[in-house]
Amino acid sequence: MKHDPMAKKLIDIVRKGKTKRLWIEDDLLYTKGRRIYVPKWSNQRRTLVRECHGTKWAGHPGQRCTCALLESAYY
User: What is the pTM of this model?
Assistant: First the structure.
């Protein structure tokens, strides 16, 4: 998140106390509903998509199911 401009802005808003919809816990940025912020252009995003789509655990769901699963836990 150190190199992500959006994450920097969101963290700044949290630290200034300007929102109750975001918070930092265990070095992770959370949104309301306990969704974890994942920077748009990060390796973590690719890893999450791979884990939720192409593993035996995921059962290789389609694009819509994969997106819905990710959106329920990540922002």
Answer: 0.70
Residue (of 31, 59, 29, 56) closest to 44 by Cα position: 29
pLDDT digits (tens, 9 = 90+) for 3-49: 789 989 999 999 999 999 999 999 899 998 889 998 887 788 888 88
* CA-wise closest residue to 66 among 56, 51, 30: 51
DSSP state, residue 60: -
Q: Count the neighbouring beta carbons within 10 Å of the beta carbon of residue 71.
A: 10
Domain coordinates in residue numbering, the chain: 5-73
Residues 6+ apart with CB under 8 A from 74: 35, 36, 37, 38, 48
